[in-house]
Amino acid sequence: MRRITIGLLVGLVVASIGQTSAQPAGDVIDPAVVGYPQRVVAFGDSITRAFLADGNIAEIGDKPQYSWATGTSPEVNSLTERIRTATGSVTATNAAVSGASMTALVGQVNGAEPANAQYATILMGANDICRSSEGAMTSVTDYRTQITNGLNQLTTNEPEVRVFVASVPDIFQVWQTFKDNSTARFIWGQFSVCQSMFANPESTAPADVERRQRVRQRIVDYNTQLSEVCNNYLRCRFDQNLLFNSPISPTLITADYYHPSIAGQQALANNLAQASFDFTDQQAPVSTVGFTQTKLMWLATLSATDDRGVRGLEYRLPSQTTWTRYSQPFEVAPETTIIVRAVDINGNTEGSRAWTAPANNQSPSVVFMPFVTLNQ
């Protein structure tokens, strides 16, 4: 997670060129968005649909009441139920589809648009790995494009949605856990489960050992893409590979020796709740704009403070409806108004405010020199 540390040095203005002014902020244009969401939407595959979580092979299928993200079962205590406990009310939509790979994310996002998500979870990638063969896996380039397309669509539909992206689980650990179990080997073979990883499960031949390592590396590469792409969005948080690094034990896997059991879904909820946004944080960040005169223009420098940490800032002109993420100081004409808001590491968004560059003949009496340190 990127952290922005802000400081201000104050002094007297002694020159006309290079002088800096922080103009008083105008009225709040948009209200702050802080604290718990009221609408949750989960995107993903059979893991989020809690396929066969109860282990009842007589009724094979999705068991969404046990979903780590949106389930209602007290045995799991899903992320949604934790929000309900804290707020008393929340609306949840499970838009995941069993069997879906990352290419389906855009479709899931558009299908769930009426839900108006304020908080979205994404857990997808197992089906990009688990194919009939190693060669059939989704390429890293395509996977990155697909998650980018999905996040672009999601943030276009809901610009202020907070997005939590979970890492792809380490399917190699599943193989390690059950490779010596004859029933698991039979089911994997009989139903062609994840043959890219589970083919020849007992083999120690170099070709099979190397294949498994390459498949595992593909998962690592997918997670790198998830981290990098998520970082491009102010309100996106990646789990920092927490799910990938979580240990797998027999009790966490259901009767098909692949999907999470009810206990596994509970473990997912417990772990991922720690990695997601802290909704108990209800303090919005506070932004500041400094204007430094450069001949006939003013250089706008944006900064912000927050008790938990600033994720970034964004700005727009009053005539615009879309926001630009702030990355470096930019020039504006005298008396130009810009609208600014900051976002903290928990996705809390400051109420946007208007700041106006001084006229050229204005002589500020105080210098604000913001310094910004970005911590990856």
UniProtKB/TrEMBL annotation:
Species this protein is from: Herpetosiphon gulosus
Claim: Nucleotidyltransferase is one of the keywords in the record: no
Signal sequence segment: 1-22
InterPro entries in the record: Ester_Hydrolysis_Enzymes, GDSL, Ig-like_fold, SGNH_hydro_sf
The keyword Signal is annotated on this UniProt entry: yes
Name under which the protein is recorded: SGNH hydrolase-type esterase domain-containing protein
UniProt keyword list: Signal
